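Please, structure for the following, as tokens.
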Amino acid sequence: MIYIIRTCLFLAAFLVYNIANAAEIKLAVTTSFNNSGLSDILLPEIKKDLNIEVQLLVVGTGQALKLGRAGDVDAILVHSKKAEEKFISLGFGTHRREIMYNDFVIIGPKSDPAKIESAKNITEALAKIADTKAIFTSRGDDSGTHRKEISLWKSAGKNPDTFNASWYRAVGAGMGATLNTASGMNAYVMSDRASWLKFGNKGELKLLFSGDPILFNQYALLPLNPEKHPHVKTDLANKLETWLASEKAQTLIGQYTIKGERLFIPNAQPKVN
């Protein structure tokens, strides 16, 4: 009996020690990723498999890249390929590893005053919104979603800098807050699919347009370059990357659903050395 008690006490002490001494890594992630709820699925598994405590800094892609340039995180998980490639080319990140993707969608009032539900492509949908001056809420926060939205307006031959604030409302906040604003104003808004599916305050809004290939939304992990910031935890970032690209993590990502709909499609590729 004494032996059993001692063994149990040893195991309990061992578990407490390991929990207290888990390695910590700082990861900047987008608000759209955090809003999806996927982190609640992945982080406990990362802790269990790697004994790494992932501290999330939830910001827009633009701010995540700034945190990376300043060396305030060990890696970033974002979704703006052009900006990511520039980040790498400037030497702030070692490489870019694609992990998963979803797509952007246009949400709007069920009454659809701009009649975008019948649009043939995203260019036509946005042109209809601008031409009718239907209320549109933009994140306006230099996030990956905001940058994508701006590029789409320009593809539609529209210049957001000239839009009147009477119908084009820049929120300057994350995806959740922007969706809440759109719901309160019964306005159009562009969202990543995961955030929309997770969003609970839909009100009179519905998904009106999706499916254009240009709305593809890739998420990638970028470990910071220790040559720029020697203090970053490169070993932990590499372990995290390997885990996210593993069969287990990719399966967890692919199996994560809300009301039967997948929020992300895993697509990690072999690491390029």
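The first helix runs from residue 2 to 20. Residues 2-101+217-266 form a domain with the D-Maltodextrin-Binding Protein; domain 2 fold (CATH 3.40.190.10).
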